[in-house]
């Protein structure tokens, strides 16, 4: 289970990393059902990335995979090609979503958007590490 207290700690660690790299981000944390527990839009982070960060968290939890890894398999000819059109368009195949695990079981996810794919993933990793 991902509590609000957990989500705040995860977001704080992710914000710290985003500040270190100088890129404002949207950071979303979802619970085991893919529902948003908490979201933060850092000052000057793109408004359009609010939705993307939340969908990255949903995607990571829905498929229990990092979105950067799902992206690799969803390219033309890949085994998951077209997956982004599933689930009412809620699937994001950009880097920045990471499942959150407790005792080896996925219990939630973090989704980050606002920079390059590498930046989004690095910030998400920092948040996930705080869990």
Automatic annotation (TrEMBL):
One of its GO terms (molecular function) is transferase activity. This is ATP:cob(I)alamin adenosyltransferase. InterPro entries: GlcG_carb_metab_protein (IPR052517), PduO/GlcC-like (IPR005624), PduO/GlcC-like_sf (IPR038084). It comes from Croceicoccus naphthovorans. Keywords: Transferase.
């Amino acid at each position: 289970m991902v509590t609000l207290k957990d989500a705040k700690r995860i977001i704080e660690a992710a914000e710290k990393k985003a500040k270190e790299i100088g890129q404002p981000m949207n950071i979303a944390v979802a619970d085991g059902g893919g529902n948003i527990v908490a979201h933060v839009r850092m000052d000057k982070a793109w408004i359009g990335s609010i939705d993307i960060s939340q969908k990255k968290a949903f995607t990571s939890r829905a498929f229990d995979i990092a979105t950067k890894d799902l992206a690799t398999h969803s390219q033309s000819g890949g085994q998951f090609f077209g997956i982004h059109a599933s689930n009412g368009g809620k699937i994001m195949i950009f880097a920045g979503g990471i499942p959150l695990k407790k005792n080896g079981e996925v219990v939630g996810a973090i989704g980050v958007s606002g920079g390059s794919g590498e930046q989004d993933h690095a910030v998400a990793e920092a948040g996930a590490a705080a869990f």
